[in-house]
Amino acid sequence: MSEYEGEARVSDPVVGVVMGSDSDWPVMEGAARALEEFGVPYEADVVSAHRMPHDMIAYGEGAAARGLRVIIAGAGGAAHLPGMLASVTPLPVIGVPVPLKYLDGMDSLLSIVQMPAGVPVATVAVGAARNAGLLAVRILAAYDDDLRAKMAVFQRHLYGEAKAKGARLRE
Ligand code: RP5
User: Fold this and answer.
1) Which of 39, 97, 104, 126 has its CA 20 to 30 A from that of 135?
2) CA 168 to ligand 1 centroid distance, Å
3) What is the pLDDT of residues 102-116, one digit of tens each?
4) How far is the CA of 48 from the centre of ligand 1 (A)?
């Protein structure tokens, strides 16, 4: 059983966090944790583009009707999952390049970011699943006053941390 099974599922998820393999979870967990911090209901699952292509298409085609509003998709190597999902859903897809043993994640990054015109994937930095989660929150917050207020608090917190670092250097 994957580590995340049983803990990452909530009722009525609005974000789908999917990945090509459970070996991606140590990276993708960052997205899940960010969503939890903001109280955003999400689901997590393995949907491999190459090992379960029909499931992948079904996931993408059914996502909006099931109530999802954003998909975060992570994969490593020949990372086709985010782009293929974007091709079959009208929802925004955020791609997370997962770094593997070789090539430092550059293969994953280029596989995800080089999408053809008309089929965008919002690609975050290699391994930056937390930012993917935060971007999903921002997308949802555009139409949710409470969530936008939470994001503003979060940003003020970031500001405070950065200022404190400067203050420590000046001591
Ligand atoms: C990709 O292959 C997955 O997203 C993962 O990053 C990589 C390796 O998968 P495993 O061989 O560990 O299952 O499709």
Assistant:
1) 104
2) 42
3) 999 999 999 999 999
4) 8
pLDDT at site 10: 65
Is the pTM higher than 0.90? yes
Question: Which of ligand 1's atoms lies nearest the C-alpha of 108?
Answer: 6
Closest by alpha carbon to 74, among 126, 37, 39, 34? 126
Domain residue ranges in the chain: 15-144
How far, CA to CA in Å, does 113 sit from each of 1, 24, 125? Answer: 31, 18, 10
Q: Assign a CATH topology to domain 15-144.
A: Rossmann fold (3.40.50)
Nearest atom in ligand 1 to the alpha carbon of residue 22 is 13
Q: Which residue has the higher pLDDT, 5 or 36?
A: 36
Cα of 58 vs centre of ligand 1, distance in Å, is: 20
Helices marked H in the chain — which ranges?
25-37, 53-62, 81-88, 106-113, 129-141, 145-170
